[in-house]
Amino acid sequence: AQTVTQSQPEMSVQEAETVTLSCTYDTSESDYYLFWYKQPPSRQMILVIRQEAYKQQNATENRFSVNFQKAAKSFSLKISDSQLGDAAMYFCASPRDGNEKLTFGTGTRLTIIP
Amino acid sequence: GAVVSQHPSWVICKSGTSVKIECRSLDFQATTMFWYRQFPKQSLMLMATSNEGSKATYEQGVEKDKFLINHASLTLSTLTVTSAHPEDSSFYICSAVKIAGSGDTQYFGPGTRLTVL
Question: What is the distance between the alpha carbons of residues B90 and B25, in angstroms, rounded to a whole number?
């Protein structure tokens, strides 16, 4: 079974500081995308960032960046200059079944301390 | 953009009735849509894959006769919970994949909270 592991159920960070959320995955796909989604209290799943596995360069979207280690199957999310609006559940997702479907991790609840 | 809507956002029904949930991609076409279920404080569990013009494929353990899925067009998929019971109460979320240019990225609807009395 293909799995996604988020080992930090909860994390907290001071506003304006940097936090890193960890994720490891196991996929048999060769070319694939990896994703981080956030789910705020509204429960709307929002795409944060995606990484193309065949690209060595780590993806960056404004304050969000990833540290992608393909050999280690590690895909961590770094949030810089944390803001109160970043408070949410963060889910890491990796593909299965020919990239058609996603397997989600159990999530990390991020709290921002004012 | 990539906006996905769901209707209704919440619904309360009596046990034994059927409930239909709609998922629409508003500004793009989607050959594939997915239906998930999420219990409180848990992750998303994939229920089924909905492909336009063909039968849905269900994940192991999901009753296809209870959760009927119809993908009638490139912008609309519906999930019907038939003969709903209290154990079907949950948060149902759909997602849609753009036909091209998104790297198989799934864009999610806002979810539907179903409560069965």
Answer: 22
